[in-house]
Amino acid sequence: MEQEKIAWLQNKAREIRTHIIRMTAAAGSGHPGGSLSAADIVTALYFHLMRLDPQRPSWPDRDRFILSKGHAAPLLYAALAERGFFPVEELLTLRKLGSRLQGHPDMKSLPGVEISTGSLGQGLSAGNGMALAARLDGRDYRVFVLLGDGEIQEGMVWEAAMAAAHYRLDNVTAFLDYNGLQIDGPVTEVMSVEPVAEKWVAFGWDVQVIDGHDMVQIIQAVEVARQVRGRPQMIVARTVKGKGVSFMENQVNWHGAAPRPEEAERALAELAAQAGLAPN
Amino acid sequence: MKKIATREAYGEALVELGRENPDVVVLDADLAKSTKTIDFGKHFPHRFFDMGVAEQNMLGTAAGLAAAGKIPFCSTFAVFAPGRAFDQLRNSIAYPRLNVKICASHAGITVGEDGASHQSVEDIALVRAVPHMTIFVPADAVETRKAVQAAAKIKGPVYIRLGRAAVPVLHAEDFLFEPGKALVMRQGNDATIIATGIMVAEALTAAEELAKEGVSVRVLNVHTIKPLDVEEIVRAAKETRAIVTAEEHNIIGGLGSAVAETVCEHCPVPVHRVGIPDVFGESGTPDQLMEKYGLKAEHLIAAVRKVWELKK
Ligand SMILES: Cc1ncc(C[n+]2csc(CCOP(=O)(O)OP(=O)(O)O)c2C)c(N)n1
Ligand SMILES: [Mg+2]
Is B55 one of the annotated active-site residues of the chain? Predict the structure, then answer.
């Protein structure tokens, strides 16, 4: 892939991070940490990998993206707005009374939201349902699902993992946002999910482990996943919670706290300084 | 007036209980900072179990702990228990009448900005329909502490419904909390507002306002939804002959339903249910949502006027 496109995507991810900071600061609440950690993955999907038409959000052949970790709603909204699903100005209405940008994604209110989430552990099952429907309808769309590493403590995730393999849903590609933190602390201390890659292998999935902030690796992993036949694919993406804002990185307290105005300014200045720089 | 969230009082009450009773254990599902069980975790780390994001496993584990003689208190948001873990509550805990306490915070729409996915409007209805359950919905911090103490003494499953937002302290420390006994917070003869949880404060404000117009409103605080204080509710129906119920919950299946069923059976008089009108919530500040969904004192005043008309 040409260097120019990669640099463009990296810059788009930076813009999306900027939106995440502005939105949560304006709302005075929300979840910046897990939104920032998955920003590169979601940017690669919405701006390069997925088949989409923002003018036709219900186009039957579109690829689907499911934000199973629904608290990262600011990230999804920023990507949808930047991609043209709704005006970018609307982003600042996040979490306000009457806004289409609900605290957690609501498929009834906002075009581009494929399924309502917020209660963790339920997105992969919905993704399987869409993938089965694609098969029944003879459509070739792909379903992408983003899971959190704390989220996969939910038993239902593993029921869905089993079902995807059982029904050979090779049109399902899941990402694990492997940032190592949940609300009460490090995942290994709260309730270990290790060995995580091996678990998905044991459940019958094709598994790759990548750096979730490396645009080239993200894109290549999806290209590889597309070639897999007869098995769903899991891309375990090592990430940093709060990525891109130094004082938020790897800090558990930024899971569900919005930046105050002066913190937002510092964060935005840092992100602005990253323009034109390679993110790694 | 001093304001404290009931979840804050819950956290403190658990620590107190932990000191008194070595059999008390606490479980949480990755929300210990929000439900305030973290205080117990700091004081008694070996009796505190964070189960991760796994509410069903949390309740199932609590069933086992109880069967082996422990007194588990389990906490998460109300949408996740009873919500997510309803079958575990029903089959593993309530049916065998195990000594598990489910103390859910962030009930109702005062959750605020997180929106409908996190705002439980149905938890009382779910738990009320399950045999063997006791249900407490404390109105303030003092009542919460007493409810937690009472729950520890009851041999069997208890659900305590707690809130996120800070609410006025209504009680003196020495008031008598008797499970199953409604409290007459204010006497009156023209109508009764039967309220639970954070709506008790709104009911008192409404009664105060109406008194200025010469309408004498009784306020009943039903902190125990189950078993319901049938006697006190029927007395209110007989003596005031007009009833308004008030709850931060769907008008279906909660306090309003329980009161309407009771009044219909024993002493039919006009009943108007104030609560969330069978809709999901949304993002907004707690105050905006209380206004939008009609849960403020002004709405109770309008409802009292309505039943008062009907009674004439
Ligand atoms: C069923 C359910 N239980 C609890 C919660 C509350 N909650 C929101 S985010 C979160 C932690 C998630 O951790 P992780 O999946 O690692 O998210 P990330 O680090 O990517 O933000 C919890 C417990 C929820 N939303 N849904
Ligand atoms: Mg995580």
Answer: yes
